[in-house]
Amino acid sequence: MAPRSYGIPSPLNRSFLDHEIALRVFGMSLQPSPIKQILFFIGGILITIWAVTATPLRDAHPGLITLFVIWALVATFYLGGLTKTKELRVVRVPALLAYLPKKAREVFVRRGSDPGGFYSMVGISHIAENGRITFDDGSAGQVYMVVGSASRLLFDEDQTAILNRRDAFWRKVPTSCSFTEITTKEPQRVVDQLANLEHRNRNLEIRDPDLIELLDEQYDILTGHVGGKFTSIHQYQLLRGRTANALRQGHQILQVEAESSSLVIKEISMLDRSETERMLRVFYQSADQAA
Predict the structure, then answer these.
(1) pLDDT on residue 207
(2) What angle do CA 285, 289, 291 make, to 5 degrees?
(3) Residue 231, CA distances (Å) to 102, 185, 186, 228 in order
(4) Would 95 be classed as within a structural domain?
(5) What's the Rg (C-alpha) of the chain?
(6) How far is CA 28 from the centre of its chain?
(7) Which residue windows are transmembrane per the record (predicted)?
(8) Of 25, 57, 128, 243, which one has the fewest beta carbons inside 10 Å?
(9) Residues 80, 48: contact at Cβ < 8 Å?
């Protein structure tokens, strides 16, 4: 039976400084804080005291010293705050400084522009005809369009079965593979409807102009309205392996899961090069170009 709640296990790279300590101040229990946060606060306070007692700042006007102390303490407690991933905010400062220059926030994608900026952001070296993605770090990937079984209308026993099956699925995935779930909002796919329309067109026994005009009208509606203006939710799985062999193992596990049960994955289809590029355009193409 699936548990009602799940705990997030501690990461393998957890160090001594990540251990949390529960402190008590004036008899009140404070929220547990990691050792690195406590040391950062202590270090910030000590540096502030040193700055106002052992530097030329000690000879400044008392009002200026007061403002400096307030600013230093506010900066210390803000930068020492924790993010959602239990990291200190101060670790984001280098990335912020690198992002501030305007040049670092602009990526030119003209045909004659240097592709280095865009390439470093995307990290994709090549996409083969079968949709196989080669990343710049040597890893390989494949994108699948998936349909799951999750719903708010599930019975309790179905929900339990899905959770148990999904838990068993993730236990089989090797550490050399990673799955990234991608949810996009794209125009509705009308490939099957267009194929059916083409089948009807080829099997017309009487090539009546009115019937041809009706088929053309349905084609325009599917391509220009349903498949162009109306959007729907699409879900993808990006399977990425450190090597081609790891990608093959992950593909086999995913394929066996889809064929043996519909609890985790109800439907799955591998994307080729054109379909993969179409999915990526949602993230890397401007709104004006998409329109």
Answers:
(1) 77
(2) 115
(3) 34, 6, 5, 8
(4) yes
(5) 28
(6) 40
(7) 38-57, 63-82
(8) 25
(9) no
2 within some domain: no
Count of C-beta atoms within a 10 Å radius of residue 288: 6
pLDDT tens-place string over residues 101-118:
887 777 777 777 776 677
Instruction: State what percent of residues in the chain have pLDDT above 70.
Output: 90
- 172 and 82, same domain (yes or no): no
Q: Tell me the C-alpha to C-alpha distance, in Å, between residue 130 and each of 167, 270, 275.
A: 30, 9, 10
Token match 């230093």: residue?
A: 72
Q: pLDDT: is 227 or 87 the higher one?
A: 87
Domain encompassing residue 183: 115-188+230-285
The residue among 159 and 11 whose pLDDT is bigger is 159
Domain count, the chain: 2
pLDDT score recorded for residue 291? 44
What are the distances in angstroms from CA 241 to CA 189, 258, 265, 270, 286? 28, 19, 20, 16, 29
pTM of the model: 0.61
Please state, in angstroms and rounded to a whole number, the distance separating the CA atoms of residues 163 and 155.
12
- State how far the Cα of 169 lies from the Cα of 254, in Å rounded to an integer: 9
For residue 75, is it within any domain? yes
Most confident range (mean pLDDT) of 9-23, 58-72, 270-284 is 58-72
